[in-house]
Write a structure and sequence with these properties.
This protein is an alpha/beta fold. Helices cover 33% and strands 15% of the residues. It is built from 11 helices and 12 strands. The chain has an 8-stranded mixed β-sheet with strand order 1-2-6-3-5-4-7-8, sandwiched between helices. Helix 1 packs across helix 6 and helix 10 packs parallel to helix 11. The radius of gyration is 20 Å and the shape is globular. Bound molecules: threonylcarbamoyladenylate and magnesium ion. The site of magnesium ion has 3 residues, from loops. Threonylcarbamoyladenylate binds next to strand 4, strand 5 and strand 8.
Protein backbone atom coordinates (compact mmCIF):
# COMPACT_ATOMS: atom_id res chain seq x y z
CA UNK A 1 0.00 0.00 0.00
CA UNK A 2 1.34 3.39 -0.94
CA UNK A 3 1.43 6.25 1.55
CA UNK A 4 1.97 9.88 0.62
CA UNK A 5 5.01 9.80 2.89
CA UNK A 6 6.54 7.21 0.59
CA UNK A 7 6.13 9.49 -2.37
CA UNK A 8 7.64 12.39 -0.46
CA UNK A 9 10.54 10.23 0.71
CA UNK A 10 11.33 9.21 -2.87
CA UNK A 11 11.09 12.77 -4.16
CA UNK A 12 13.32 14.02 -1.33
CA UNK A 13 15.86 11.28 -2.07
CA UNK A 14 15.94 12.31 -5.74
CA UNK A 15 16.21 15.99 -4.94
CA UNK A 16 19.06 15.21 -2.57
CA UNK A 17 20.96 13.61 -5.45
CA UNK A 18 20.04 10.00 -4.64
CA UNK A 19 18.75 7.09 -6.69
CA UNK A 20 15.33 5.40 -6.38
CA UNK A 21 13.54 2.68 -8.32
CA UNK A 22 10.26 3.83 -9.87
CA UNK A 23 7.50 2.06 -11.77
CA UNK A 24 6.80 2.95 -15.39
CA UNK A 25 4.20 1.47 -17.73
CA UNK A 26 6.98 -0.53 -19.46
CA UNK A 27 9.44 -1.75 -16.80
CA UNK A 28 10.78 -0.41 -13.49
CA UNK A 29 13.47 2.27 -13.82
CA UNK A 30 16.44 3.30 -11.69
CA UNK A 31 15.85 7.04 -11.48
CA UNK A 32 17.96 10.10 -10.64
CA UNK A 33 18.09 13.79 -11.51
CA UNK A 34 19.08 13.80 -15.20
CA UNK A 35 20.90 17.10 -15.04
CA UNK A 36 23.03 16.18 -12.02
CA UNK A 37 26.08 14.28 -13.19
CA UNK A 38 27.00 12.95 -9.75
CA UNK A 39 23.55 11.36 -9.42
CA UNK A 40 23.85 9.96 -12.91
CA UNK A 41 27.20 8.39 -12.05
CA UNK A 42 25.52 6.69 -9.07
CA UNK A 43 23.00 5.05 -11.38
CA UNK A 44 25.77 3.70 -13.63
CA UNK A 45 27.54 2.34 -10.57
CA UNK A 46 24.50 0.62 -9.02
CA UNK A 47 23.53 -0.90 -12.37
CA UNK A 48 27.08 -1.90 -13.27
CA UNK A 49 26.45 -0.32 -16.64
CA UNK A 50 29.32 0.53 -18.99
CA UNK A 51 29.66 4.31 -19.15
CA UNK A 52 29.50 4.03 -22.95
CA UNK A 53 25.79 3.17 -22.79
CA UNK A 54 23.54 6.26 -22.52
CA UNK A 55 20.42 6.63 -20.36
CA UNK A 56 16.86 7.62 -21.27
CA UNK A 57 15.69 10.93 -19.83
CA UNK A 58 12.08 10.96 -18.64
CA UNK A 59 10.09 14.17 -18.92
CA UNK A 60 6.67 15.33 -17.83
CA UNK A 61 5.76 16.82 -21.20
CA UNK A 62 7.03 18.09 -24.54
CA UNK A 63 7.92 21.46 -23.04
CA UNK A 64 10.38 19.76 -20.71
CA UNK A 65 11.79 17.86 -23.72
CA UNK A 66 12.32 21.20 -25.49
CA UNK A 67 14.38 22.43 -22.56
CA UNK A 68 16.93 19.65 -22.98
CA UNK A 69 16.91 18.89 -26.73
CA UNK A 70 16.53 20.48 -30.15
CA UNK A 71 13.11 19.20 -31.14
CA UNK A 72 11.43 19.31 -34.55
CA UNK A 73 7.93 19.13 -36.03
CA UNK A 74 7.94 15.33 -36.33
CA UNK A 75 8.91 14.96 -32.67
CA UNK A 76 6.19 17.39 -31.67
CA UNK A 77 3.52 15.53 -33.60
CA UNK A 78 4.71 12.15 -32.34
CA UNK A 79 4.61 13.43 -28.77
CA UNK A 80 1.04 14.64 -29.26
CA UNK A 81 0.00 11.21 -30.41
CA UNK A 82 2.10 8.83 -28.30
CA UNK A 83 3.03 10.71 -25.10
CA UNK A 84 2.66 9.98 -22.34
CA UNK A 85 3.57 6.44 -23.36
CA UNK A 86 6.24 3.93 -24.39
CA UNK A 87 7.90 5.92 -27.19
CA UNK A 88 11.50 7.12 -26.72
CA UNK A 89 12.78 9.68 -29.22
CA UNK A 90 16.44 10.36 -29.90
CA UNK A 91 17.06 14.05 -30.55
CA UNK A 92 20.09 16.38 -30.65
CA UNK A 93 20.90 17.33 -27.06
CA UNK A 94 21.22 20.80 -25.58
CA UNK A 95 24.39 21.63 -23.61
CA UNK A 96 22.48 21.50 -20.29
CA UNK A 97 22.41 17.66 -20.51
CA UNK A 98 25.60 16.27 -18.94
CA UNK A 99 27.71 14.02 -21.14
CA UNK A 100 27.49 11.36 -18.41
CA UNK A 101 23.81 10.86 -19.34
CA UNK A 102 24.38 10.56 -23.07
CA UNK A 103 27.69 8.68 -22.82
CA UNK A 104 29.37 11.47 -24.73
CA UNK A 105 26.87 11.37 -27.64
CA UNK A 106 25.50 14.61 -29.04
CA UNK A 107 21.99 13.15 -28.92
CA UNK A 108 19.70 12.39 -26.00
CA UNK A 109 16.97 9.75 -25.59
CA UNK A 110 13.72 11.22 -24.21
CA UNK A 111 10.35 9.83 -23.26
CA UNK A 112 7.34 10.84 -21.19
CA UNK A 113 6.11 7.86 -19.16
CA UNK A 114 2.42 7.33 -18.49
CA UNK A 115 2.55 5.53 -15.12
CA UNK A 116 0.71 7.80 -12.69
CA UNK A 117 3.28 7.39 -9.88
CA UNK A 118 6.22 8.21 -12.12
CA UNK A 119 4.34 11.26 -13.37
CA UNK A 120 3.59 12.35 -9.83
CA UNK A 121 7.30 12.09 -8.96
CA UNK A 122 8.23 14.08 -12.11
CA UNK A 123 5.72 16.73 -11.13
CA UNK A 124 6.95 17.02 -7.55
CA UNK A 125 10.64 16.89 -8.47
CA UNK A 126 10.11 19.49 -11.18
CA UNK A 127 13.05 18.16 -13.18
CA UNK A 128 13.70 15.55 -15.85
CA UNK A 129 14.74 12.15 -14.49
CA UNK A 130 17.22 9.80 -16.11
CA UNK A 131 16.24 6.16 -15.67
CA UNK A 132 17.57 2.99 -17.22
CA UNK A 133 15.68 -0.21 -16.54
CA UNK A 134 16.15 -1.23 -12.89
CA UNK A 135 18.20 -4.39 -13.51
CA UNK A 136 21.90 -5.14 -13.23
CA UNK A 137 23.57 -4.64 -16.61
CA UNK A 138 22.44 -7.06 -19.38
CA UNK A 139 19.98 -8.95 -17.15
CA UNK A 140 16.19 -9.17 -17.44
CA UNK A 141 14.28 -5.94 -16.80
CA UNK A 142 12.03 -5.99 -13.72
CA UNK A 143 8.28 -5.69 -14.08
CA UNK A 144 7.39 -5.74 -10.35
CA UNK A 145 8.85 -4.08 -7.24
CA UNK A 146 9.71 -7.50 -5.88
CA UNK A 147 11.83 -8.30 -8.94
CA UNK A 148 13.79 -5.06 -8.44
CA UNK A 149 14.47 -6.07 -4.85
CA UNK A 150 15.58 -9.56 -5.86
CA UNK A 151 17.84 -8.17 -8.58
CA UNK A 152 19.79 -5.81 -6.30
CA UNK A 153 19.45 -7.51 -2.92
CA UNK A 154 21.03 -5.62 -0.04
CA UNK A 155 22.32 -2.90 -2.37
CA UNK A 156 18.81 -2.13 -3.55
CA UNK A 157 17.84 1.55 -3.62
CA UNK A 158 14.41 2.52 -2.24
CA UNK A 159 11.57 1.29 -4.46
CA UNK A 160 8.25 2.97 -5.06
CA UNK A 161 5.83 0.09 -5.57
CA UNK A 162 3.45 0.77 -8.44
CA UNK A 163 2.30 -2.80 -9.07
CA UNK A 164 2.99 -4.88 -12.14
CA UNK A 165 4.00 -2.93 -15.25
CA UNK A 166 1.28 -2.82 -17.91
CA UNK A 167 3.46 -3.48 -20.98
CA UNK A 168 6.30 -5.49 -19.44
CA UNK A 169 8.69 -4.69 -22.32
CA UNK A 170 10.89 -1.62 -22.76
CA UNK A 171 9.79 1.36 -24.84
CA UNK A 172 10.19 1.66 -28.60
CA UNK A 173 13.34 3.69 -29.32
CA UNK A 174 13.06 5.91 -32.43
CA UNK A 175 16.05 7.81 -33.75
CA UNK A 176 15.07 11.19 -35.18
CA UNK A 177 18.57 12.53 -35.69
CA UNK A 178 18.98 11.30 -39.27
CA UNK A 179 16.92 11.86 -42.45
CA UNK A 180 15.03 8.62 -42.18
CA UNK A 181 13.49 7.96 -38.77
CA UNK A 182 14.88 4.65 -37.59
CA UNK A 183 13.70 2.24 -34.93
CA UNK A 184 16.67 1.32 -32.78
CA UNK A 185 14.71 -0.90 -30.39
CA UNK A 186 11.29 -2.42 -31.21
CA UNK A 187 8.75 -1.94 -28.44
CA UNK A 188 5.06 -1.58 -27.63
CA UNK A 189 4.56 1.15 -30.26
CA UNK A 190 4.95 -0.58 -33.60
CA UNK A 191 6.91 0.48 -36.62
CA UNK A 192 3.65 0.35 -38.61
CA UNK A 193 1.86 2.76 -36.27
CA UNK A 194 4.79 5.15 -36.51
CA UNK A 195 5.15 4.72 -40.28
CA UNK A 196 1.42 5.27 -40.87
CA UNK A 197 1.55 8.35 -38.78
CA UNK A 198 4.64 9.76 -40.45
CA UNK A 199 3.30 8.80 -43.87
CA UNK A 200 6.90 8.12 -44.68
CA UNK A 201 9.52 5.49 -44.75
CA UNK A 202 10.69 4.29 -41.40
CA UNK A 203 13.63 2.00 -40.98
CA UNK A 204 12.88 -1.02 -38.80
CA UNK A 205 15.52 -2.27 -36.44
CA UNK A 206 17.35 -5.23 -37.88
CA UNK A 207 18.45 -8.00 -35.59
CA UNK A 208 21.19 -9.20 -35.48
CA UNK A 209 22.90 -6.55 -37.62
CA UNK A 210 23.99 -5.04 -34.30
CA UNK A 211 26.37 -7.94 -34.02
CA UNK A 212 28.36 -6.65 -36.96
CA UNK A 213 29.53 -3.48 -35.24
CA UNK A 214 28.59 0.11 -36.08
CA UNK A 215 25.73 0.15 -33.64
CA UNK A 216 23.76 3.34 -33.57
CA UNK A 217 22.47 2.55 -30.11
CA UNK A 218 25.37 1.64 -27.87
CA UNK A 219 23.20 -0.34 -25.47
CA UNK A 220 21.71 -2.68 -28.01
CA UNK A 221 24.07 -5.59 -27.77
CA UNK A 222 22.79 -8.68 -29.53
CA UNK A 223 22.96 -10.54 -26.24
CA UNK A 224 20.79 -8.79 -23.71
CA UNK A 225 17.80 -9.31 -21.42
CA UNK A 226 19.12 -12.79 -20.71
CA UNK A 227 18.49 -15.29 -17.91
CA UNK A 228 21.44 -17.40 -16.66
CA UNK A 229 19.99 -20.63 -18.07
CA UNK A 230 20.73 -21.06 -21.80
CA UNK A 231 17.68 -20.62 -24.02
CA UNK A 232 16.84 -22.78 -26.98
CA UNK A 233 14.66 -20.79 -29.33
CA UNK A 234 12.25 -22.47 -31.80
CA UNK A 235 10.88 -20.90 -35.01
CA UNK A 236 7.28 -21.53 -33.98
CA UNK A 237 5.09 -23.42 -31.55
CA UNK A 238 4.83 -26.48 -33.82
CA UNK A 239 8.57 -27.02 -33.89
CA UNK A 240 8.73 -26.54 -30.13
CA UNK A 241 6.00 -29.14 -29.60
CA UNK A 242 7.73 -31.51 -32.00
CA UNK A 243 11.35 -31.05 -31.00
CA UNK A 244 11.68 -29.85 -27.41
CA UNK A 245 13.03 -32.64 -25.18
CA UNK A 246 10.78 -33.56 -22.25
CA UNK A 247 12.98 -34.29 -19.30
CA UNK A 248 13.66 -33.19 -15.73
CA UNK A 249 16.55 -31.12 -17.04
CA UNK A 250 14.38 -28.91 -19.23
CA UNK A 251 11.97 -26.04 -18.76
CA UNK A 252 9.41 -25.40 -21.47
CA UNK A 253 7.59 -22.09 -21.88
CA UNK A 254 4.39 -22.12 -23.95
CA UNK A 255 2.71 -18.98 -25.32
CA UNK A 256 -0.75 -19.87 -24.10
CA UNK A 257 -2.62 -22.12 -21.70
CA UNK A 258 -4.53 -23.29 -24.76
CA UNK A 259 -1.41 -24.99 -26.14
CA UNK A 260 -1.15 -27.19 -23.01
CA UNK A 261 -3.31 -30.09 -24.26
CA UNK A 262 -0.96 -30.56 -27.23
CA UNK A 263 1.84 -31.10 -24.85
CA UNK A 264 3.03 -34.11 -22.90
CA UNK A 265 5.38 -32.65 -20.29
CA UNK A 266 6.98 -35.87 -19.07
CA UNK A 267 8.80 -34.40 -16.11
CA UNK A 268 9.88 -31.16 -17.74
CA UNK A 269 8.71 -28.03 -15.98
CA UNK A 270 6.02 -26.12 -17.90
CA UNK A 271 5.14 -22.43 -17.82
CA UNK A 272 2.56 -20.53 -19.84
CA UNK A 273 2.81 -16.86 -20.85
CA UNK A 274 -0.91 -16.12 -21.26
CA UNK A 275 -4.37 -17.60 -20.94
CA UNK A 276 -5.40 -17.43 -24.57
CA UNK A 277 -2.41 -16.24 -26.59
CA UNK A 278 -3.05 -12.51 -26.25
CA UNK A 279 0.20 -10.87 -27.32
CA UNK A 280 0.00 -8.02 -24.82
CA UNK A 281 -0.41 -10.51 -21.98
CA UNK A 282 2.54 -12.50 -23.34
CA UNK A 283 4.66 -9.32 -23.37
CA UNK A 284 3.61 -8.42 -19.85
CA UNK A 285 4.51 -11.86 -18.48
CA UNK A 286 7.64 -12.59 -20.51
CA UNK A 287 10.40 -11.36 -18.17
CA UNK A 288 8.71 -12.58 -14.99
CA UNK A 289 8.27 -16.05 -16.48
CA UNK A 290 11.87 -16.22 -17.76
CA UNK A 291 12.97 -15.24 -14.27
CA UNK A 292 10.89 -18.01 -12.64
CA UNK A 293 12.18 -20.52 -15.17
CA UNK A 294 15.74 -19.42 -14.48
CA UNK A 295 15.35 -20.01 -10.74
CA UNK A 296 14.79 -23.72 -11.32
CA UNK A 297 18.41 -24.02 -12.51
CA UNK A 298 17.63 -26.57 -15.21
CA UNK A 299 19.90 -27.18 -18.21
CA UNK A 300 17.83 -25.34 -20.78
CA UNK A 301 14.78 -23.15 -21.29
CA UNK A 302 12.83 -24.02 -24.46
CA UNK A 303 10.62 -21.32 -25.95
CA UNK A 304 9.27 -20.44 -29.40
CA UNK A 305 9.02 -17.22 -31.42
CA UNK A 306 5.56 -15.70 -31.96
CA UNK A 307 3.89 -15.05 -35.31
CA UNK A 308 4.85 -11.47 -36.05
CA UNK A 309 1.25 -10.36 -36.29
CA UNK A 310 1.83 -6.96 -34.71
CA UNK A 311 4.38 -4.67 -33.11
CA UNK A 312 4.18 -6.20 -29.66
CA UNK A 313 4.86 -9.67 -31.14
CA UNK A 314 7.90 -8.26 -32.94
CA UNK A 315 9.11 -6.71 -29.69
CA UNK A 316 8.69 -10.04 -27.86
CA UNK A 317 10.63 -11.84 -30.62
CA UNK A 318 13.38 -9.22 -30.51
CA UNK A 319 13.84 -9.80 -26.76
CA UNK A 320 13.75 -13.59 -27.20
CA UNK A 321 16.45 -13.43 -29.87
CA UNK A 322 18.64 -11.29 -27.66
CA UNK A 323 18.04 -13.51 -24.65
CA UNK A 324 19.11 -16.57 -26.63
CA UNK A 325 21.93 -15.04 -28.68
O1 LIG B 1 10.86 1.48 -21.30
C1 LIG B 1 11.98 1.98 -21.16
O2 LIG B 1 12.55 2.59 -22.07
C2 LIG B 1 12.66 1.80 -19.80
C3 LIG B 1 11.88 2.60 -18.76
C4 LIG B 1 12.56 2.61 -17.42
O3 LIG B 1 11.66 3.89 -19.22
N1 LIG B 1 14.01 2.24 -19.86
C5 LIG B 1 14.99 1.56 -20.52
O4 LIG B 1 16.23 2.16 -20.41
O5 LIG B 1 14.79 0.54 -21.13
P1 LIG B 1 17.58 1.40 -20.76
O6 LIG B 1 18.65 2.34 -20.31
O7 LIG B 1 17.58 0.07 -20.18
O8 LIG B 1 17.60 1.37 -22.33
C6 LIG B 1 17.82 2.56 -23.07
C7 LIG B 1 18.23 2.23 -24.47
C8 LIG B 1 19.62 1.64 -24.49
O9 LIG B 1 19.65 0.61 -25.45
C9 LIG B 1 20.48 2.83 -24.93
O10 LIG B 1 21.65 2.44 -25.63
C10 LIG B 1 19.53 3.58 -25.84
O11 LIG B 1 18.27 3.45 -25.23
N2 LIG B 1 19.90 5.01 -25.92
C11 LIG B 1 19.90 5.91 -24.92
N3 LIG B 1 20.35 7.11 -25.36
C12 LIG B 1 20.63 6.96 -26.67
C13 LIG B 1 21.12 7.83 -27.70
N4 LIG B 1 21.42 9.10 -27.45
N5 LIG B 1 21.29 7.32 -28.94
C14 LIG B 1 20.97 6.03 -29.22
N6 LIG B 1 20.49 5.16 -28.29
C15 LIG B 1 20.34 5.61 -27.03
MG1 LIG C 1 17.73 -1.93 -19.96
Amino acid sequence: MLHNDDLKFHVDTLRGGGVVALPTETVYGLACLALNKISVQKVFKIKGRPTSNPLIVHVLDFEQAEAISFTNEIAKELAKLFWPGPLTMILPKKPIVPREVTAGLESVAIRSPSHSLFRKVLELTGEPLAAPSANPHSKLSPTTADEVLQAFGKNCPPILDGGKCAFGLESTVLDLTSNIPTILRPGPIAEKELGDFLGAEIKPSSFPSFARGARKSPGLHPKHYAPETPIRLYQNLNSLVKLAPRSKRDVIILPSRKSLPKFGANGSELFVLSNDGNVNEIGQNLYGTLRKADKLHRDKIHISLLDESNGMARAVNDRLRRASF
